[in-house]
Amino acid sequence: MENNIDDNFIDNIGAGDLEGNDGAENKADADTLANKKALEQAQKNLLARKRIDELMEKKRLKELLDDSEDW
Questions:
Q1: Chain Cα centroid distance, residue 6
Q2: Is the pTM of this model over 0.70?
Q3: H-helix segments, 1-71
C-alpha cells in the first residue's frame, strides 16, 4: 500500500500564515458591519424618540382641550 500524503506540505505555508494573522481585511469588514448596525440602531432610536414625543404632545394637548372638568 502506497502512501500519497505529501510529507512536505508545511513548505507551502507562508510566514504570515504562522503568525496567527487574522487579516486586516476581516477586521475592517467587521468594523464596517458594526458601524452599519450602530447607525441602523441609532436611526431606530431616533424614530422611536420622535414617536414618543409626538404621543406625549398629543396627550398634553388632549388634556388642555378636555373641558369635562369645567362643568
A1: 44
A2: no
A3: 15-18, 24-65
